[in-house]
Design goal:
Helices cover 52% and strands 18% of the residues. The chain has 19 helices and 14 strands. Helix 2 runs antiparallel to helix 13, helix 13 packs parallel to helix 17 and helix 13 runs parallel beside helix 18. The strands form three sheets. The chain has a six-stranded mixed beta barrel with strand order 4-5-10-7-9-8, surrounded by five helices. The protein folds into two domains: 197 residues, no CATH class; 226 residues, no CATH class. The protein is of the alpha+beta class.
Length: 491
């Protein structure tokens, strides 16, 4: 009896008949598979929803779809080094040949806009309040243009015409609480930075209050500063630092001593003298024409990129890297996860750990299924012998057991996926509120909504198919060992 189109139909009919006839055993296997796949679908839907929430909040708030940075052995995120060294601080590298890099990026098909940033961890002080913060020195106009999730709730944005600083509402509230009075736009904030034995201070007025679509510790800790002020504070001013790119990693060692290295006595006219009030005014404003010193500067740590709708970030990143390498530019691209750093990798690793756990459960379920199928083989020894005696080939018997196993397992898996999808739809209609700030940071949203995707459903079906494919191997081998003459005599 060969396997043709008619043979395949006959095998499926017999397989369905055997599944229905053995309702007790089949129901137990089906229930086990369906519940396992349903839990797997719900768990991955929660992680998919979390991943989507993190991606949207981060991409729309501070990472962009892609980012370009200097290519170095040590990996950096926008918040600094990903491999901190005990006892030392690692300076974030600046992009070499920045004007060429930016032009190449903006001329690339699929890129909608870009904005450069200077990054650093600085000390923020306001009266009794003192905390280290992640400061981003920005180009005011282009920065707010590519982040639709970033809103100015009070005051105005940073134009670059004068020094300014922007805080989140939560940071402003914390400062007001520490000083027993509300913080207002225009109030001064002191920023400090220590490096190589030198401590720099800058007093900057608050230009505005910003808000992000999600409230968490990562976004709440960001402070936006005009680029010239932050660059000067970090010792990255283009007029004071020779060179850029990877060679400028030690640029934070620039100090006041370097400013006066070539100083000499000069005979000045009485009218050229400085008054104390003039000095105080210069310090308060950041120096004579402080913005013009760095306006158009090529010293930046990151170039953040917003893609056009429909553009694929993976393909565009590969294309950009190839173009940068072809021009001999020492820069590289990274996706939003690499830009955000460890804060965006939590869900990724949670997914891996979760799926490892699920596969362990599936493996245990597979053993149960194998045992059930082995029992079924012993119970059907006579049937198998009769089929063989009537001319059924070994391939027919093998195909019959494979069909029974796959129909049972895949059918149960589809039911499990359906149960998981319905449960996620019911939960997603209202969302799962997350009150804990740590959990909100981990999941990237304050209201979690599970999302069942087509790729996730196909993954679960494939996992079930793999389980079924492995489960029939031993029972089939056992069935084929049975000799027809002996099987007929066994009741």
């Amino acid at each position: 009896m060969g396997i043709s189109d008619g043979g395949t139909t006959l095998i499926l009919k017999i397989a369905l008949r055997n599944i229905i006839r053995s309702r007790g055993r089949s129901s137990a296997i089906a229930l086990l598979v369906a519940l396992t796949i349903a839990l797997m679908a719900i768990g991955n839907a929660v992680l998919d929803g979390s991943d989507r929430g993190i991606r949207k909040s981060y991409v729309d708030s501070f990472t962009g779809d892609l980012a370009v940075s200097e290519d170095t052995k040590e990996r950096f995120s926008i918040f600094g080094s990903q491999t901190p060294i005990i006892g030392s601080l690692t300076s974030m590298p600046t992009i070499g040949s920045f004007p060429e890099v930016r032009k190449l990026v903006e001329d690339t098909k699929g890129v909608a806009a870009s904005t450069p940033v200077v990054c650093g961890i600085v000390m923020l002080e306001a009266g009794a309040y003192s905390k280290p913060v992640s400061a981003f020195g920005i180009e005011g106009g282009s920065y707010f243009g590519i982040f639709p999730g970033l809103k100015v709730s009070e005051g105005a944005g940073l134009s670059g015409a004068k020094p300014g600083l922007m805080l989140t509402a939560s940071r402003a509230a914390a400062i007001g609480e520490a000083n027993k009075k509300p913080l207002s736009v225009g109030d001064p904030i002191v920023l400090g930075y220590y490096s190589a034995g030198h401590f720099q201070l800058r007093e900057v007025p608050i230009s505005g209050i910003i808000s992000y679509p999600v409230q968490n510790d990562i976004l709440g800790g960001i402070v936006l500063v005009d680029a010239p002020t932050l660059r000067s504070l970090l010792g990255l001013d283009a007029e004071l630092v020779a060179g850029s790119g990877a060679d400028a990693q030690g640029s934070t060692e620039a100090s006041l001593d370097a400013l006066f290295a070539g100083a000499k006595d000069v005979k000045a006219q009485p009218s050229a003298g400085l008054r104390l009030s003039d000095v105080e005014a210069l310090l308060k404003e950041g120096g004579p024409d402080s913005d013009s010193i760095s306006r158009g500067s090529s010293v930046w740590n990151y170039l953040l990129i917003r893609l056009q709708p429909g553009a694929r970030s993976e393909g565009l990143a590969f294309s950009l890297d190839a173009s940068l390498a072809a021009k001999g530019l020492t820069a590289r691209t990274q996706d939003w996860r690499g830009t955000a750093g460890a804060s965006a990798l939590y869900v990724y690793w949670l997914r891996i750990i979760f799926n490892i756990g699920v596969f362990i459960v599936l493996a245990a379920g597979g053993l149960i299924i194998v045992n059930a199928l082995v029992i079924a083989v012993f119970e059907r020894t006579g049937e198998i012998g009769t089929m063989r005696a009537l001319g059924a080939s070994r391939s027919f018997v093998r195909s019959l057991f494979v069909a029974e196993t796959m129909v049972l397992v895949l059918g149960s898996a589809l039911v499990g996926i359906g149960i998981g999808a319905l449960a996620c739809a019911a939960i997603g209609a209202r969302g799962i509120p997350i009150a804990n700030q740590t959990a909100a940071t981990l999941f990237g949203t304050s209201r979690l909504r599970p999302v069942v995707t087509l790729s996730s459903a196909l993954f679960h079906a494939a996992a079930a198919a793999l389980l079924g494919a492995l489960a029939w191997i031993y029972p089939v081998r056992l069935a084929l060992r049975i000799q027809p003459a002996r099987a007929i005599t066994i009741e």
